[in-house]
Amino acid sequence: MLGLENKLKLYGFNNLTKTLSFNIYDVCYAKSEREQKDYIAYIDEQYNSERLTRILCDVTDIIGAHILNISKQDYDPQGASVNLLVTEEELPVVMLDPSCNGGKGVFDGLSETVSAHLDKSHVNVHTYPEYHPDNSIATFRVDIDVATCGKVSPLNALDYLIGSFDSDIMTIDYRVRGFTRDVDGKKCYMDHDITSIQDYIDDYTLTRYDAIDVNVYQANIFHTKMLIKEIELQNYLFNKDVYELPPKQRLAITDSLRKEMIEIFSGVNVY
Predict the structure, then answer these.
(1) Which of 79, 112, 144, 238 is the Cys-Cys partner for 22 at CB 3.0 to 4.6 Å?
(2) How many domains does the structure of the chain reveal?
């Protein structure tokens, strides 16, 4: 963000809309039908709507926003969704719409569904576990969107989001839309410095991934894709020890995992 000495003096409210879309894939080797179903059950439990809600509440705290409303839902046979409506400034109770729960009852079983909204902003997440019976590879996808208006920036929560999930592939989009005006009436289309989304990612994290940028600076559109560099096979085996497998099979599994990751990273059926 701009330093205090360079802080923009605006006329009225900051009308810029900043949207961060964070998409991750976790890949696993699960050969038998039992292993595949157990993996999906594990993911459903590990990333159920309650845990996802806590992650999004943390995101809201990190970006300095306040929760107006939360809704969440677990799905059959798998997957979950959470939506938060949030506000940059805390609103007086008398101003809250009666439909807003403020997050109350979400974690104590009083509410079957949860949605949270920010005033002029929102945070939501959806999960997509999947596998195919003819393929020994199972994948888990998480889509998170953080949209804010005003001074708060969703980029401040990016490192926390990356650390909250086991990510083999990440696709991150950031866009600033609209304009705001300074006190002299001049339109401003960006209120902070950015050359790459990677500027907001921890240096250690970046050493673990191959990353590429596709940015459209004149449109304030930033896109980064990241692919894990090293595959430690034990981390990709579900309910199986790597030393139970002969060396040739270890190499074959590692190769199939890498091919799956490359295709997802490229968005093309290469193999």
Answers:
(1) 144
(2) 1
Amino acid of residue 185: G
Domain assignment of residue 1, yes or no: no
- CA 205 to CA 207: how far, in whole Å? 5
Six token digits for residue 56: 């999004």
Angle at Cα 47 formed by Cα 44 and Cα 51, nearest 5°?
A: 130
Contact of 19 with 154, CB cutoff 8 Å: yes
pLDDT, tens digit (0-9, with 9 covering 90-100), for 44-97: 888 899 999 999 899 888 888 888 888 889 888 788 899 888 776 565 554 455
170: nearest Cα among 19, 54, 24: 24
Is 77 inside a domain boundary?
yes
Can 57 be counted among the known catalytic residues?
no
**100 catalytic per annotation:** no
Are 227 and 168 within 8 A, CB to CB?
yes
Among 28, 57, 100, 149, the one annotated catalytic: 149
Distance between CA atoms of residues 232 and 10, nearest Å: 51
Q: Does residue 3 fall inside a structural domain? A: no
Say if 271 falls within a structural domain: no
Per annotation, catalytic residue among 121, 136, 153, 164: 121
The CATH number linked to 241 is: 3.60.90.10
Residue pLDDT, tens place only, 209-235: 999 999 999 999 999 999 999 999 999
Q: DSSP assignment, residue 217?
A: G
Any catalytic annotation for residue 121?
Answer: yes
List the domain range (segments joined by +) for residue 186: 9-266
60 vs 157: CA distance, rounded Å: 8
Catalytic residue, chosen from 66, 126, 192, 223, is 126
- Rounded to two decimals, what is the model's pTM? 0.80
